[in-house]
Design brief:
Helix 4 links the parallel strand 5 and strand 6. By secondary structure, this protein is of the alpha/beta class. Strands 9-8-7-6-5-2-1-11-10 form a 9-stranded parallel beta sheet, with helices on both faces.
């Protein structure tokens, strides 16, 4: 059963979450600990984020500049496989345009097909660190829709090497991102919805929202999607506030609004620990309202830490 089938057949909102692969040089024990902490709530699937390699420049002893490409985290494929085979839970690795050309993308997808991991979450990815404009790798994809086209080609048995004999069609299914407060680069919501409809046309079977903190934003967005013929499941993505500085960083990074009541609650905190607890309280109320609305799932962004998510789930599920 793929993810969309799970979402459509669920009799009550599912519990799902996203994990960030650990920094390079760290073991997977922290990831296992985060998963173990949430097993009581029967996660239906776990998303695994993917991050492109960064380009860094270092000054050598002779004064010349050395350009290096640094991958700071293990791949989403490695992390997804480790979790899938340890826990027998469906995993959904992020597949991104950023940092990959078409052949590298195909090789990554071949690895996933070999591992029998067929659920994908397809994204463009962020621009290179320090830039605001996304530039694809040479012979890479510029848009999510382009990447989806390559996945559809492989599902039809069409590989880059057209000399292959009897190539095996893959059976990938795709989820995509959506933005209740519009993508930061979109000119307006109408344009953003146009591209979401294109993703659905290309085979997106469900969408997960960017984080939001005002549920009315989600309710209005779902209504707008339905009015525009977008009828796939739309899963709310939720991130609890966890530090004092989140109220400054998150709006700038993700182009989102924070309700004033939440801002006031965090400003009244004297430490990150207090802010984390205030974030838990806000998210419990937010999740209960979303659950009553009848969402297909509650999807939590954990950043690899799950103690606060566990507290929320104990109150909601």
């Amino acid at each position: 059963m793929n993810i969309a089938e799970k979402l459509c057949s669920a009799k009550s909102p599912l519990f799902t979450f996203e994990l960030l692969p650990p920094l390079k040089g760290k073991g997977i024990d922290a990831i296992y600990s985060a998963v173990d902490n949430l097993l009581d709530f029967n996660p239906s699937y776990i998303n695994i984020t993917s991050h492109a390699a960064d380009t860094v420049y270092k000054t050598k002893d002779d004064g010349s500049i050395e350009r290096r490409v640094v991958r700071k985290r293990p791949s989403s494929v490695a992390t997804a496989a480790a979790i899938h085979f340890k826990y027998n839970i469906d995993v959904v690795p992020h597949i991104i345009c950023s940092g990959l050309n078409r052949e590298e993308t195909e090789n990554l997808l071949i690895d996933l097909d070999f591992l029998d991991i067929e659920n994908l979450f397809v994204l463009r990815g962020d621009p290179q660190r320090g830039t605001r404009v996304f530039v694809p790798k040479e012979d890479g994809h510029r848009h999510t829709t382009d990447l989806m086209g390559q996945i559809n080609d492989m599902n039809a048995g069409h590989y880059i090497d057209d000399t292959l004999k009897n190539p095996k069609p893959t059976h990938f299914s795709m989820g995509v991102a959506c933005y209740p407060e519009k993508h930061i680069e979109a000119q307006n919501m109408e344009t953003d919805l146009f591209y979401l409809k294109e993703k659905v046309r290309l085979g997106a079977e469900y969408a997960v929202t960017q984080m939001f903190f005002d549920n009315q934003k989600y309710f209005d967005f779902v209504k707008l999607c339905r009015a525009n013929g977008i009828n796939i499941p739309i899963v709310p993505g939720i991130k609890p506030i966890s530090t004092l500085n989140d109220i400054n960083v998150l709006p700038q990074t993700f182009n989102i609004d924070l309700p004033q009541d939440l801002v006031n609650a965090i400003k009244a905190c004297k430490s990150n620990a207090e802010a984390r607890e205030a974030g838990v309280e806000w998210t419990i109320a937010q999740a209960k309202e979303l659950k009553a609305f009848g969402v297909p799932s509650l999807h939590f962004y954990t950043l690899g830490e799950s103690d606060n998510i566990r507290k929320i789930c104990q109150a909601v599920y």
